[in-house]
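LOG
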Amino acid sequence: MSKTACKVLVVDDEEDILLAGKLLLKQHFAVVKTTSDPYQIPALMQEHGFDVVLLDMNYSTGATSSKEGFHWLKQIQQLSPKTTVILMTAYGDIEMAVRALKEGATDFVLKPWQNEKLVAVLKTACQHGSASVKRSAEAAEQNNTAYHYDGFIGVSPAMQRVYQTIDKVAGTDANVLILGENGTGKEVAARALHRKSKRAGNVFEKVDLGAVSETLFESELFGHAKGSFTDAKEDRAGRLEAATGGSLFLDELGNLSLALQAKLLTVLQSRQVIRLGTNKPRPIDIRLICATNMPLYQMVREGSFRQDLLYRINTVEINLPPLRERREDIKLLAEHFLQVYRQKYDRAGLKLNADTMQRLSAYRWPGNIRELDHAMERAVILCDGNTLSPDDFYFAPDEDREQQRQESQGIADADYTLDTLEKMMVQKALVKHSGNITHAAKDLGITRTALYRRIEKHGL
């Protein structure tokens, strides 16, 4: 079994827990260290540079308040902001879990743990880095005008609608479909839904379906028995089983073939999985969150996505706007990323001038927030002076400038017929709302029936 390239520290006052944890985790992670003395944490952190710390919350005999755990959580955050901290206790409750997450922990584990769940939680932590880094960066920005909402930054009306939807649906177990272009924050939205849900104390399991091959799909999602195929050297739970009790985030859903869509639909309908090589159904209890940047509604019309699967996953839809449709947030995001990279690269005096901010605000950002993030990091690294100028940034070349020119001129220079204009507006509305007929019709100021007629009329 290949091990995850991750350094894990387990801190607990019970030697049995440490031994069990080390025996389990060393099978899955490159480096696993243990200590029963939390006062050894600073020295161990300095020596090994751990990626993840699995931290008990009580160390004194009979203690159940978790004060010690929160104390050491803060110490680890100060020593190494990039390190992910997962808290564990035998005396947990939802209130404590919520507090742990708010104070910077990435997840919360109850003892005695389930081996498969614990491994899944730690692997997720290793893959996605420290949530506490994001929270620290957000906390450092509280004095500016940016509006922070559980990983998001923005004050635009479009984002306010997103926040409101997340607040309404998070406390339920309704299936959620998140639509949006690459780089708009679909995973951020999924994690916000999980943190605000009743399942916040349990695992958040992410599966990138675009990275799972057809041959490994069933093994990866449903699990397998030892000997069920050539490399199946032991029984292994799939990602759906690992997510039981928590949230399952299926990213890049639109990449699934029709055959795999059928298999996924069967599991979602029955709420049970059968591992490869067995006949035994295993119940699953998950909160399903899906995301894609692909136009699922158009794919349904074209026959490349199952309509029954779409109905199963989209009890509630959240449409994340591209950055070009929330330009009032670009300044807030730019200042946020500047603050993050000033600290990271020790460039305390670095600032943005007015011309640079104007150029950032005018650019279309085809890669959305992710592109802005990377552009700011690159600019901070390469800037020679104390002021970031437009020349310090890389902007996608002439194609984007030409598109901006055409949009600024509008349609005044072209001789369009009314039919052409109507088709263009319907197309733009459908693209903007990722094929969602209800939202597109509302945007156009017509009924769903009228929009369907126009789609048929123009062959869209």
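LOG (cont.) second protein
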Amino acid sequence: MTPIVKAVQGVKESIVNIHGHKTISTASAIGDAPRQVNGMGTGVVVDERGYIITNQHVVEGVRRIQVTLHDGTTYVAQLIAFDEKTDLALIKVEAEKPLPVVKTGTSSDLMPGETVIAVGNAYGYENSVTRGIISALHRTVQVSDTQKYYDLIQTDASINPGNSGGPLLNIDGEMIGINVAVRVGAQGIGFAIPVDTVMDIASQLMSIERLDRHWHGITGETKFVDGVAQMHVKSVDPNSPASLCGVQAGDVITSVDELDICWMLDIERALLDHETGEEVSLKLQRGEGDEKSLALVLQGQGGANALVDAAWDLLGIRVQMVPTNEFRSNNTRYRGGLKITAVKAYSPAARQQIRVGDVLVGMHEWETISVDNLEYILKSDIIAQKRPIKFYILRDNETYYGDIAVANYRVR
């Protein structure tokens, strides 16, 4: 019972194998017919209700995503959301019982030379385990003309096709990364997305705004104090459920609805599947050990339900107003915008490579400072004409634009 054996045994039930078929086109000759290829990969359970994080390229274009649990049970998964920039995706299976959630560490204190373990579906050999060390940190890797990764962990643990989406573990059996890439032709050079990035993106993909059309108004970050993860509140949206119940910037949220809170993802998990108007218990620490118990009442997402439905059905997005002070802090030349909180797979927005985290600042000739602006646009004659409409987004303080097609739908 070595430390590596114990580490693997502690997480093996949280790791799943992913199989599927996708159609790809061949460019070798004009007129070549598309062909079916077998795809494989790995995923990790991040919520006991069957939510699984994996790489987006593992499930991209797969019509029937088959997920096999550690006990051999196989389910067909649904693609919930994905983030193309980081190559992460959230899928879900309707399991018959709660699934064990992966134990999570942090990538903020990793050291070159540290022992790591990779687990995955390497070349279809399920639950393969390899070990190595961290070779380097903060690597930028270009794997194709269209895919570039940033801030990766480099390891010499064997990472092969099929390992993608699986966990990279530390010696304590905590996930510290998601395996993502291997250099073609190289030996002993593999890469993983740091777990701090994974948890941040997972919280966006699994947000209650996207899945339940609720909101809480909390923006937070995880800090490790004496090796213990703490979820610190960075800001609270005005008039949000969190603001109304008394949550303040600087608070440390310790539990929500009896679930211990370490990450923003935990807040989304705790609030998921509750009803509008339902009261949820929230505990936090303020100042020097001042503990408080609050009652957060869930509200529907900002804006009328008709607007929420229209933006989702017509464009494939859900949005949230960005506070004015946040815009000013970014020194942007725009007066305001709507943050993209969810993007529907294969929607007009997804086809235009709009991502979660982008800020919609304009459509056609109008600004999109508030949900009222977007509602006006969706009810306008330009939408009724069913022609592509110009959109403008902010990403990393850079402006991008394009023409987005709209569905055969209009707000009434």
